[in-house]
């Protein structure tokens, strides 16, 4: 269950978990509009391009738990690269956005993906980091569409990204779903990573009891019981 309600795994802020989300994509694809729609349920047709970076917080509930999403909107122009890339470090979730009526913005998703992987220092591979690809402006007419949903699906499968959907900041279609799905993907990967870490530590005859992201206690095993 997901309800609309504000960087490291398990960090607590007023009993909610703080997650840093970065939205990347070409200028004009609607990154600021997506954030504005999600944060304040507002859409502005005349939204200006972001200069540098800006962020806002929004709290949502996923699976009965509160999560504070710290959403960073980045400038898509190349001249702002030196301003935006330092903020990639410590990101928990990355949203890659393009406009479905702009083929070039879709083609550039790979460039944005590689830029993030490099500057965020992602070492474990694409499939082990919570990426979500969002095709914005789903409200455009069929004659103006330049990227099909099947092309989105195929690209994500080829690039090992499991979460993707089309949205419209203008009509509020799938905007909440995009952010809630990104949290769900984060939680799924975190759970998988925790299980792997548990098995490794168990193999070493040590169990770390982790609660809310912190080591609560350790237990040394008398024998190996995997």
From TrEMBL:
EC class of the enzyme, as a word: hydrolase
EC number: 3.6.5.2
Subcellular location: Cell membrane; Cytoplasmic vesicle, Phagosome membrane
Cofactor field: Mg(2+)
Topology within the bilayer: Lipid-anchor
Cellular component annotations (GO), alphabetically ordered: cytosol; late endosome; lysosome; phagocytic vesicle membrane; plasma membrane
Gene Ontology molecular function terms on file: G protein activity; GTP binding
InterPro entries on file: P-loop_NTPase (IPR027417), Small_GTP-bd (IPR005225), Small_GTPase (IPR001806)
Chief location of this protein within or outside the cell: membrane
Catalytic reactions on record: GTP + H2O = GDP + phosphate + H(+)
Superkingdom field: Eukaryota
Protein's GO biological process: protein transport; retrograde transport, endosome to Golgi
UniProtKB keywords: Cell membrane, Cytoplasmic vesicle, GTP-binding, Hydrolase, Lipoprotein, Membrane, Nucleotide-binding, Phosphoprotein, Prenylation, Protein transport, Transport
Family the entry assigns: Belongs to the small GTPase superfamily. Rab family.
Protein's UniProt name: small monomeric GTPase
Species the sequence originates in: Danaus chrysippus (African queen)
């Amino acid at each position: 269950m997901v309800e609309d309600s504000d960087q490291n795994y398990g960090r607590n802020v007023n009993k909610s978990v703080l997650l840093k989300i970065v939205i990347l994509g070409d200028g004009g694809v609607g990154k600021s509009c997506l954030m504005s729609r999600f944060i304040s349920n507002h859409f502005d047709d005349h939204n200006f391009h972001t200069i540098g970076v800006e962020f806002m917080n929004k709290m949502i509930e996923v699976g009965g738990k509160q999560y504070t999403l710290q959403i960073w909107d980045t400038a898509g122009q190349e001249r702002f690269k030196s301003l935006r890339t330092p903020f990639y470090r410590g990101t928990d979730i990355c949203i890659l956005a393009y406009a479905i009526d702009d083929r070039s913005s879709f083609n550039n998703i790979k460039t944005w993906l590689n830029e993030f992987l490099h500057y965020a220092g992602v070492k474990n591979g694409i499939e082990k980091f919570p990426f979500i690809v969002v095709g914005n402006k789903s409200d455009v007419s069929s004659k103006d569409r330049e990227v099909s949903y099947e092309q989105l699906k195929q690209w994500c499968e080829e690039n090992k990204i499991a979460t993707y959907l089309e949205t419209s900041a203008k009509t509020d279609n799938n905007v909440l779903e995009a952010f809630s799905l990104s949290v769900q993907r984060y939680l799924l990967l975190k759970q998988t990573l925790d299980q792997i870490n548990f098995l490794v530590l168990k193999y070493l005859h040590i169990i770390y009891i982790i609660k809310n992201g912190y080591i609560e206690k350790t237990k040394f095993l008398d024998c190996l019981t995997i």
